[in-house]
Each structure stands twice: as structure tokens, then as C-alpha cells.
């Protein structure tokens, strides 16, 4: 009986793979009304997309608030005429699949069509992702199959993201040594071409993580709005593979070399009698590189003080570390900020004040004037700024440069015009953030932290993540600010114990607040609190002063364990996806677990957030922050909302450690 069912499913899947009908679709939550401007803009957009003679395009119709953004993408090996036929079907089908939806995506074998009322170009979106695995599993040599599949998809992923101009790659891998356990695997991967290479790579990594657990399936695919991949045990793509793994022969041959690994390629191909030649090539490369570096350093030193911001931004900052540093003249910054006038003051943050400035070329900047209590030497500080300037990610505020002159220590950031998250979120009158925007913010912060902790290889820890440190640009993209300041000031390694706890009450992980132990899991804790704030619209730190003295986390936990969690969702959210909210709360509760190891890493948080198929552990009751630190230790503040400094604590743990632990008998 079950075998029959499997056979049926298999037939269904196989036929679904080749019929030309829609594979899957996902519709947004909010609707437009018939006869609305939105509808006519949408119709116009679909007409434009249908008549576009290309395999990828984006277009926009209408003006705010009725703008419609659209995109289509055809599979890279599909000819233009088949592409057009697919898009024609898609524009027809999408209206009946998602009637009156303001947002929709439909996937076919040969193409993807997407539109939305939000500008989604160049950003990653994993919502509504679809997972398809053939129910039939391989039985022979499962381990070898999974290994080969991983290797194939790794190579296709990096080829798609970093080598292919169309962000599409195909590949075949075979292992035919033993006729019993032999097999051939074909695969492809593709990203929408509006993405950066890094985002494409990340999208495919997350998509593949969604596939975890089904690797033994004989075929499968993941469809996300931003990227997709597929593999089968038969050939299914047209043309020559970009990646070929032939494990039949003892030495791997790949065409072309998968990674941009220029030094290894000649060595790999060279046979023994070529060793000398290879060696001399390597030596000449080394000499050339050394020469180049020397020249670079020379020119950098000459130019560093003269550089203007405009010039720096024109460069694609991916060269030498030192090349990235932008040192600005103090006089330039004084003019830009009108001599740090009160009128230009944007706020008072941790470590100093922030001023808005405008450079001679019109570019707006934010200048952080650090209070100069740092014990670090100028060289050390310069190195730190160099490192921070390397951190470039859509969800991090960009550090443009610095200035270390005449006792002044200044950091120059890109200016983010919209306001900070706390301003928008906790303003009962003005909070107009809908669920889609909030979910995007939750996802954006997670990706920014993921980058900070893991992807950037800098293993930076923020240590003061909170709503007022999240800036929102005009697209409502979340940008984390003030990262790296703890690193600048604490002079710490990536993990350890510090005598100077920097953080904000309510967001601080217990092990950090109590013992000064920090690791990336300290940020994960703060992230959990932040997500709960975004969903409830309540500010965690307000809880500590309230009459009931009820703790924010225990308030959330109480409703969670009573099964009444939806009651605490921000009442200003009218339309939302219940499943998404429940999943976000669940993940947030995992992030605020007392034991750091129980908290997920940010990469798994990103994956859990976007793939409903990944199962979640059950959270246990989070550690109550109440009683952990007595409220008398908080700065007495009557006007809690007005100051960024509210509830900021700088605890000299080494002195007060004993009394703090005494307050929390175990
Ligand atoms: C378009 O849809 C029709 C009807 O569903 C189908 O027969 C045809 O194969 C589809 N064409 C493509 C290119 O998907
Ligand atoms: C939007 O329309 C769909 C189908 O017409 C309906 O099921 C859904 O409830 C509507 N959503 C809202 C928020 O009105
Ligand atoms: C589409 O473009 C291709 C080449 O760019 C061209 O050969 C083809 O004739 C065009 N088709 C239409 C219908 O314009
Ligand atoms: C959108 O489509 C219109 C009509 O085909 C075209 O004129 C315009 O250049 C397109 N815009 C973009 C941004 O591609
Ligand atoms: C294939 O493997 C998956 C994951 O291990 C399992 O859930 C599924 O039941 C298996 N399918 C069959 C038909 O055995
Ligand atoms: C290829 O197949 C042979 C024989 O089954 C096996 O020993 C080897 O591990 C396989 N290699 C891979 C990468 O699967
Ligand atoms: C194939 O190999 C498996 C073990 O990997 C073995 O159990 C099976 O009998 C073999 N089948 C044949 C036809 O050799
Ligand atoms: C893989 O290598 C084997 C052994 O050298 C060879 O017979 C086979 O043709 C190769 N396959 C491909 C597709 O190159």
C-alpha cells in the first residue's frame, strides 16, 4: 500500500517536473481591490514583462503608493523562445493562482515570475521557499552518493556566484568505478541576476541548508525567490556542464577550475617533471606580488592623507587591506559638520556623539566623535578601523573612514536617512511598520549578525545590539550600527572575559552581565530580545521600571507556555502570517536560552527563520533577568525614551562581581 503510494507520488513528481505547468507559487497576505490603480499598474507591468525579449529583467510601474515591482528569470540553458513561452504562461497563470494579491511569485521548470508592492530588487528573500525531494532514496553507497552530491553542489554554487556572468551554472559528477555502486549526478543552480555575488553565494548556502535531511533522495530541488538549485540522477539540462567531476579516474579533472584559485591550478595539472617549471612560476609570482605590495604601500602612503571620500567610494574596496582605509583630514570633517555644531548633532550614543555632515561634493555622512578615554594607541586604533572598514554588508552601516588627529578620534559612517528602529517601533502614533517590513527587518538583522560573526572571518561581536542601534534606510532595510565599538574600546579577542561590560540592560545575556563572559552567543541573546520587541511592539527595558516589576522575557514566556502567545503580538499589526509570527517567536525564545550553547548560531537562526521545513527544538524557560541585577544599579532616569543612554550599563565587574552574584542565589 505504501509502496503504491510512493510510486504514485513518484509519478506525480516526475510528471510535475516535465509538464510545463507551475511547480509552485506563493501569494502575499494583503490584497488590492479590483479597479484600483494597483491593479492597472500590475497589468501594465505584466504586459511589459511578457513583451520583453530577454532571459532576465526587472521593471517597475506606477508611482507610490501604487508602485508595482516585477522580475522574471528564465533558466540559463533555456532558449529565448522557450523563455518567452514560459513567461507568457506565467503572466496568465499568476492572476488565477494569486487572485488580487499585492505580491506573488510563481515557479516553473523553465522560469520564475515575481511581483510585489515592495521594492525587492538586489535583496535576498527566503520567504515562501519551496522544497521538493523525490521520495525515492538511494540505497547503495549512500555515503558516497551524499559526498559526491555535496562536492558537486559546492562547485556549482561557487561557480554560479563567483564565475558565471549570468549567475547560472550546471554540472555533472560521476563515480563509475564499481558497477554496483556507480551513479551519475546532474545539477544546476541559479540566482536572480540583481544580486551581488556574495548574496548569491549566501542564498545558495541557505537554500542547501533547507535541504538538510533529504540528501539521500534521488533528486530534489529548492525554489527560493532569490535563487534555486536542482539535482537529478539523470541529465536534465541543455548544453555542456560548467563543472565536471569525474571520480572514475583517480585524479579529479574539472573543467573549468571551480574556485578562483589561481595558484593551485598549475600545480594540480603539472606532472612531476614539470615541478621545476611550476616552482619557477611560483617564485616569479611571489616576487611580482611582493613588488606590487611595495608599490601599493608606497602609493597609499603618498595618497592616504589626500584622498577624498568620493574617490574612495568609487573604488570597489576589495584590494589590499591598507588600500581600504580612508583617512580624512580633521579640517574637512570640521567643515562638513559645521564645527560639530549642536544643530548637526544626531544623537548621543555609546562612546560618543554623532553628527551629521556634508562633504564638499554633497555626500552626506555621519561622524561619530569618540570620547577619548580609550587606552589604545593610535596605531592599534588605526588597525581596528582598517578591520572594521573591511566589513561591508547590506545590513551593516558602512564605515567610510576615520580621523585620528590632535586628540580627536572620529569615525565616519554612511548617513542613513530614515530613523532608528526604536523610534519607529515604539512610537504608538507613528508606528506604521507592517508585518512584511518587520519580518524583513528581523531577517536583515540576522543576516548582518551572521556576516559579522561568521561570514566576514573577523568573528566580530557587537555586544550592544538593541533597537536604537538598528537604522532603517528608505527601503526599510535594517542596518546594524555601532558594531565594532566594543572591539575598539575593549581591545578584546573574539571570545573571553572582560572586566568592562558594555551593554544595555534587558538585552544582556546573563553570563555576560554577571561574569563578563562573552562570545557570539551574547549577540544571539540580544537578537532574541530584539525579535520579541519587534513582534510585541514593547520595549523590553520599560518593563523593569513598571509597577508590576514584571520581566519582559517572563511576560513572553508566560503567554507562550499558556498557548496565548498571539495575544501579545503588537495590536497595530492587522494583517500577519500566524505561522511566521509563531516561528519567529519560537526562534527568539531559543536565542534567549540561559545556557549559551543552547542558543543557535546566527547562521542557523537565518536558516530556521527562512525554512519552515527545518524542525525547531522546544525552548525552555528563559533565565529571568529580574533579580539578576538590582534595579538600583540602573541609572535613575525619569525620561526613559529620550536618551539612547537609557539603561546603558558599564559595570566594573572585577570590583562588584561578588555583590552581583550574591543577589542571585542559585
Ligand atoms: C503553457 O501552458 C500550456 C497549457 O497549460 C502548456 O500546454 C504548455 O506546455 C505551457 N508552455 C510552457 C512553455 O510552459
Ligand atoms: C485576500 O484574498 C484572498 C482570496 O481572494 C482571501 O483568501 C484572503 O483572505 C484575502 N486577504 C485579506 C487580508 O483580505
Ligand atoms: C529577441 O532577441 C534575439 C537576440 O537578442 C533576436 O535574435 C530575436 O529575433 C528577438 N526576438 C524578438 C521576437 O524580438
Ligand atoms: C520598463 O519597461 C519599459 C517598457 O518596455 C521600458 O521602456 C523601460 O526602460 C523599462 N525599465 C527598466 C528599468 O528596465
Ligand atoms: C528517504 O530518506 C528520508 C530522510 O532520511 C526519509 O524521511 C524518507 O522516509 C526516506 N524515504 C523512503 C522512501 O525511504
Ligand atoms: C566512488 O566509488 C567507489 C566504489 O564504490 C568508492 O570507494 C568511492 O568512495 C566513491 N567515491 C565517491 C567520491 O563517492
Ligand atoms: C551491491 O552492493 C551491496 C553492498 O554495497 C550488496 O549488498 C549487494 O549485494 C550488491 N549487489 C550486487 C548485484 O552485487
Ligand atoms: C570519466 O573517466 C573515465 C576513465 O578515464 C572515462 O572512461 C570516461 O569517459 C570519463 N567520463 C567523462 C564524461 O569524461
UniProtKB/TrEMBL annotation:
Location of this chain's protein in the cell: Membrane
InterPro entries (alphabetical): GNK2, GNK2_sf, Kinase-like_dom_sf, Prot_kinase_dom, Protein_kinase_ATP_BS, Ser-Thr/Tyr_kinase_cat_dom
Signal peptide range in chain numbering: 1-20
Ranges of biased composition (kind: Basic and acidic residues): 261-271
Domain (Protein kinase): residue spans on this chain: 340-614
Molecular functions per Gene Ontology: ATP binding; protein serine/threonine kinase activity
Matching Gene3D superfamilies: Gnk2 domain, C-X8-C-X2-C motif (3.30.430.20), Phosphorylase Kinase, domain 1 (3.30.200.20), Transferase(Phosphotransferase) domain 1 (1.10.510.10)
Binding residues for ATP: 368
Transmembrane segments annotated in the record for this chain: 278-300
Name of this protein: Uncharacterized protein
Native species: Asparagus officinalis (Garden asparagus)
